[in-house]
Specification:
Strand order of the largest sheet of chain C: 1-2
Order of helices and strands of chain C: HHHHEEHHHHHHH
Largest sheet of chain C: 2 strands, antiparallel
Structural class of chain B: alpha/beta
CATH topology of the largest domain in chain B: Rossmann fold
Number of domains of chain B: 2
Oligomer: heterotrimer
Largest interface: A-C, 43 and 44 residues
CATH class of the largest domain in chain B: Alpha Beta
Number of domains of chain C: 1
Number of strands of chain B: 10
Strand content of chain C: under 5%
Chains: A mainly alpha (316), B alpha/beta (264), C mainly alpha (292)
Order of helices and strands of chain B: HEEEHEEHEHHHHEHEHEEHH
Mean pLDDT of chain B: 86
CATH architecture of chain C: Orthogonal Bundle
Shape of chain B: globular
CATH topology of chain C: ABC transporter involved in vitamin B12 uptake, BtuC
Number of helices of chain B: 11
Distance between the termini of chain C: 47 Å
Strand order of the largest sheet of chain B: 6-7-8-3-9-10
Amino acid sequence: MTQDRIIYGIFFLVITAIGFAVENHYYLQLLTIIGINTLLALGLNMLMGYAGQISLGHAAFYGIGAYTTAILTVHYNINPWMSLPCALFLAVLVAVIVGLPTLKLTGYYLGMGTLGFGMIVHILFREWSSLTGGASGFVGIPPLEIGPISFFPARNYFYLVWFTVLISFVFCKRLIKSRMGRALRAIHDSENAAKAVGINTRNMKLEIFVFSAALSALSGFFYAHMVSFISPESFSFLVSVKIVTMVVIGGMASIWGSLLGASLLTMLPEWLHSFSDFEMVVYGLILMLVMIITPQGLTRGILDIYERSRTTKNKP
Amino acid sequence: MSDREQQKINHNPLLKIESVSKTFGGVQALRNISFDLHSGLIQGLIGPNGAGKTTLFNLITGIYKPDDGRIIFDNQHIQGRQVHELVRIGIARTFQNVEIFGSMNVIENVMVGRHVRSKCGFWGAVTRVPWMVREEKNTFDNAMEILSFVGIEELAYRKSSELPFGWQRLLEIARALASNPKLLLLDEPAAGLNATETRQLGHLLKKICATGITLLLVEHDMSLTMEICDRIVVLDQGKKLAEGTPKEVQSDAAVMAAYLGVEG
Amino acid sequence: MTQELLQYLFSGITNGAIYAVIAVGFSMLYSSTELINFAHGEFVMLGAMGLVTLWAGFGLPLPLAFFLTVFGVACVGFLFERTAIRTVRKPDHIVLIIITVGASIFLRGMGMLIWGKDAHSVPAFSDHPPVDLAGAKLLPQSIWIVLIALFCALMLHLFFRKTLTGKAMEATAINKKAAWLTGIPSEKMILLAFFFSTGMGAVAGIIIAPITMCSYDMGTMLGLKGFCAAMLGGLGSLWGSILGGLLLGIMESFGVGLFSSSLKDAIAFLLLLLILYVRPGGIIMAKDAKRF
């Protein structure tokens, strides 16, 4: 508990310090995107890492968050802070409707069900042009502001997103350490045994699916108001896969792993720009290599190496 | 009301199985089975392989639904209820192959067992309201108590998947006890244990029974069953063959022929 | 009206046959390895691009180009199994999904490096004029596609039923451990499954090449739809996959013709969800879906 508080304190200081130190507009934006992706990865990690339910369609919720706020603020002139609850509500509603039948499936079948759902939502974004602007995208989403404070400057937006990340970390950590968190991990370990101790596995899976969807929609909201332009390609199947990859590479069932995974996968394309045409090849190779070498994800992989070196040292 | 029925009510069995049948794709696994489980006793369910023990076990714990007949627990009809609802009304179980939550440590496993006796949900967890903190502490204390009752409190912070098999079985029993059951069903609890461990298990089961919990053992290990059970039901090929005290069952000619005769 | 409907049916069967061939590739691999290869669509792309290079580029005779492409792509599949799948230490389905997705990105990247970003096209296999059937036009390439798809399915069917290797593969698919205990080298069978599965992918790419634009990114959608078809018919079943493919092609074609072309891509996924909810094993239930 106190240890957690110290870690949060350090995290808070690091965020503040980075916000002060980084002057470059481009880097601030990149860091903000990392924050948004961390929220995404965190949401999926709660579902995948803790409850053990894979989703290959999480970009759909990300997109629902972004498009809802875009449509409401631009077409209907609603204040963004009013559109946020609407976006969250819609994501939750969709998650309940989709989750009820889908979460009955397990393993590959669950992956496929969520994949199908993600594709359908993506096609909706693309084809429902009167509402979403179609394949060419949606422009003119207004920036966020609270009274006199505008979040248009990159630094303010950076703080907004990262403090949200911090709060989400606290919430998720609390959730994991609670009765519900234990129940989720129980479902991950053995669904039969979880039922046998009286866990309503269906409701529990649905609850975490909904929470995860809401976090993704929140990231979508931040994303839309930051870049002010969204297009269906930002919420395609490949984006869903990218979120899964962030979780797995960072480390399943690890909150800080989500941060690591999101940072790596956001920065990787930036580094890979120097490879120009080789970008995709290198990206694919890295994905495969990480999974082959440390299938538990990098946080776990690094921890394992650390522990192995410690145990060998301890041996007389 | 006839005398017979009056007698039954006075007996007030904890679990009543009334002419239950179950068929799997043409194979009749259970045929018209009836028996009662009496409060505060250790009872055994034995029979050769394919006798229908596991099917009956799964019917009581809610995994299957009977095709026919009634199952009454604590004066409620329970056939067709969900597994997790049955735990709430007081039926706990263990698995033949031990299904613990391997990624958690021992105390967490037992705390998961408290699930139905606590109620903090999503909002309680993220807001950490005082009653939730209190409940969490209660859950922990209770789990600790049960661990020491079972005799493995010193293992509380060990990772459960790293425990030897015998301790994992004790942990599973502790987890089942954490839900404050009225009835505890054990699926072959002695399977995979050596003679010493089996004897210790027998003591533990008697100790559990002494606290007022009714036990039903599905067993292969005859020595354990004969030693600790107050009553035994024998199944063979989906039918009830005999019922009574271990002595009565042992001397039953039909049982000798169908079961003991075959298995030696 | 009937003429239009017939036209939809023809184009549906043509597309359906292609989906069917892709679906068979998925199914074969799944039944012997319980793996879903998200890079399968990229092997389809490699097949189409191989034909572009060997037939349209180098001017090899069509049958030779056909054979070389299928063999070459199957060898890539072979290498893929050896380097990326065999080496996995924790064959968890999430890990395998990400590895095959990584492979698909890698292969797409390679495709872009080798063939560039532009789309290529190849002529039809034969330059007969379209056949007129009750007012609807049937392209000769459609006939080629359906015939080749049927031929492949028949060959696979015979292979699994009549040859010892085929039976051994089926045994491995049903129960790997038991097959291994009877002396079947299950590792070899899995390699063989990869070889055949990716080869089927290449066949699909080759037969679709004349009726579409071939580019490095053509495989993703084709792969996903082939996968939907496999699920629809029954993942792990040969004739189920064929049925699923044809059904998907026909429904897509009618959906586009009768309703709206914007629906085209959604149909496959709506069907996927529907079948998952109603009958997860597919129309022809090959394996119990709850096995995981």
